[in-house]
Design a protein that fits this description.
The chain is mainly α. The protein is built from twelve helices and no strands.
């Protein structure tokens, strides 16, 4: 009965936590972002502490460095990205029309009698995309604004997040020690082991996969820009950001870059081959070196489960859900594997069936009829 009460207590606590996140999701963004950044930077603060620098000064130094990097990004990179995004939004209808013309020429030469049906389908698809582009852009802007309304907006994100990062870095060790003191004494060892596994999985994503995404974003942006692809910086960085979704981010980036290259360079085929080469090189660089060296296999999430978690958490909690989807999914994966291990070693799984009368029968008791 005691175990049942414990299970009910923790299930109730988890349910209350989920409900609170759902109710407060509109104001949680700067706090969640601050905790994620602090978790990412904590090893650096610990390393500075081991070098003899007080934790407060280490936190100040790290925060100042992060703010300088952010300021440089805002001053030098963001204007370029905004300009390319605006140019792409304005040029998309004309680009779509030209792309349709190129597809029509190709299809007319190869499809013969089936060309009119193909043309009708392509026309409907591209015309619909072009006509609805304004509505899509308006919806996207409205969605971004809705995520920032009430107490959460760009100003609060810029002001609150650095404070959360600083205090989390300063109080990290005392906070962990206090949480450790709250653990149920009878289960403290098992909980610490689970927490260590969860930390390995979450660290592999936030620190490992986050680093991989930054490197790949820089690689794709530099490669596409070197080719001379319009909007190459925007497409490359977006592909790097989406690299945490297995294959999906890479495929979306490749298709987008190929479509833009086709409109810009056709009938030249060399730039198209160079675009494909950049993405193949990035995929090989990631699979052969970056992910094995930086991330390893500690996340332990199947790609389908990862994509499912992203969809579910983004649907339930918006952008906050996107930030926490993979770490929470990784933590759930550790707990599920632990529960499965307990089940496979329990009497429920390994128990023997007893006959209605008498002790359990062994193989030697069997007789041939």
């Amino acid at each position: 009965m005691r175990a049942e009460r414990q299970v009910l207590f923790w299930m109730g606590a988890a349910l209350v936590l989920v409900l609170l996140i759902g109710l407060l999701k509109d104001i949680l963004l700067p706090f969640v972002a601050g905790m994620v950044i602090a978790y990412f930077l904590n090893p650096l603060a610990a390393a500075l502490g081991r070098m003899g620098l007080p934790r407060v000064w280490a936190s100040i130094l790290i925060l100042l460095g992060a703010l300088l990097v952010m300021a440089a990004v805002i001053v030098f990179l963001v204007p370029l990205l905004v300009a390319q995004a605006q140019q792409l939004a304005l040029a998309l209808p004309d680009e779509a029309t030209r792309l349709r013309g190129l597809i029509d020429v190709w299809a007319r030469e190869r499809l013969g009698a089936r060309y009119p049906e193909f043309q009708a389908g392509i026309t409907r698809a591209i015309d619909g995309m072009s006509q609805n582009w304004g509505d899509i852009a308006k919806w996207l802007a409205t969605s971004l604004w809705d995520q920032s309304r009430a107490l959460v907006n760009a100003v609060s994100l810029l002001l609150v997040t650095p404070l959360v990062v600083f205090y989390m870095l300063v109080d990290w060790d005392p906070m962990i020690a206090k949480i450790n003191g709250w653990l149920p004494r009878a289960h403290a060892t098992a909980i610490r082991a689970l927490a260590s596994d969860i930390n390995d999985a979450v660290s592999a994503f936030i620190r490992g996969q986050g680093t991989v995404c930054l490197i790949l974003g820089a690689f794709y942006a530099a490669g596409l820009s070197a080719i001379g692809l319009r909007y190459g910086l925007l497409v490359g960085l977006a592909t790097g950001v989406l690299a945490f979704i297995p294959f999906v981010g890479w495929a979306l980036g490749l298709l987008t870059a190929l479509a833009l290259a086709l409109v810009q360079f056709w009938p030249e085929t060399t730039p198209l081959l160079l675009v494909v080469g950049v993405f193949l090189a990035g995929q090989a660089f990631d699979a052969g070196f970056l992910s094995p060296s930086i991330v390893g296999s500690k996340i332990g999430l199947h790609p389908v489960w990862l994509i499912f978690a992203l969809f579910v958490f983004s649907y339930l909690f918006g952008f906050v859900g996107v930030l926490v989807a993979v770490p929470v999914a990784a933590a759930i994966g550790v707990l599920v594997r632990f529960a499965l291990k307990v089940y496979l070693s329990s009497s429920v799984y390994e128990g023997t069936l007893e006959p209605a009368n008498g002790p359990p029968r062994t193989d030697g008791d069997e007789t041939t009829r």
